[in-house]
Amino acid sequence: MPKHDGVYKKVEAAIANEPDGQSALEAAVRVLKAEMTRYTWVGIYLLFGNELVLGPYLGKPSPHTRIPVGRGICGAAAAEKATIIVDDVSADPRYLACSLDTRSEIVVPIMRDRAVLGEIDIDSDQRAAFDDANRELLERVADLLAARLSASQPAART
Ligand code: SME
């Protein structure tokens, strides 16, 4: 059984109760922020054309509300269509700062049929906060969100 299966099940139950894709995203952010103590900032970006646009989030307001694909760690994950974990953001030249307290970050693309719909972005004030169990949890949540978004909007192609 995956380590964070209990949290996954809470996300699954919360989003099943939501009427549309947008409120499902909000519910996922809410559960992840409440359940995972190291998650200082939890947000979801949606891809519109070649730009990631900030959707629901919990944490300090970010100056990065629109990020072109290819810029920052968020843009890199969208371009590579793969999860990126950065243990020490100060050592990664791609990093776009959101808060001075952030030490590590994980970005997980939300994809359908290899098309990026958006991504889950999480910052932690702890160094190296994201391990394989976090990656597994968030990739499973991304699949749930992809299914919900697919039902209500066409895939944005990259
Ligand atoms: N750190 C991200 C930018 C988004 S904020 O962390 C919310 C990046 O490097 O792409």
The figure for the number of domains is: 1
Q: Fraction of residues in helices? A: 25-40%
CATH fold-level assignment:
Beta-Lactamase
Question: Strand order of the main beta sheet, please?
Answer: 3-2-1-6-5-4
- Tally of alpha and pi helices: 4
Averaged pLDDT: 94
Nutshell version of this structure?
With about 160 residues, this protein is an alpha+beta fold.
Layout of helices and strands:
Elements: H1 5-16, H2 21-35, E1 41-48, E2 51-58, E3 66-68, H3 72-80, E4 84-86, E5 104-112, E6 115-124, H4 132-152
Antiparallel strand pairs: 1-2, 1-6, 2-3, 4-5, 5-6
Helix pairs in contact: 1-2, 1-4, 2-4
This protein binds methionine sulfoxide (SME).
Task: Fill in the keyword field for this structure.
single chain, 36% helix, binds methionine sulfoxide, globular, alpha+beta, 4 helices, Beta-Lactamase, six-stranded antiparallel β-sheet, 6 strands, disordered C terminus, 158 residues
Could you describe the 3D structure shown?
The protein is of the alpha+beta class. The chain has a single domain (5-148), classed as Beta-Lactamase (2-Layer Sandwich), CATH 3.30.450. The protein is built from four helices and six strands; from the N terminus they run H-H-E-E-E-H-E-E-E-H. Strands 3-2-1-6-5-4 form a six-stranded antiparallel beta sheet. A hairpin with a 2-residue loop joins strand 5 and strand 6 (115-124). Helix 1 (5-16) runs antiparallel to helix 2, helix 1 runs parallel beside helix 4 and helix 2 (21-35) packs antiparallel against helix 4 (132-152). The protein is globular. The protein binds methionine sulfoxide. Methionine sulfoxide binds next to strand 1, helix 3 and strand 6.
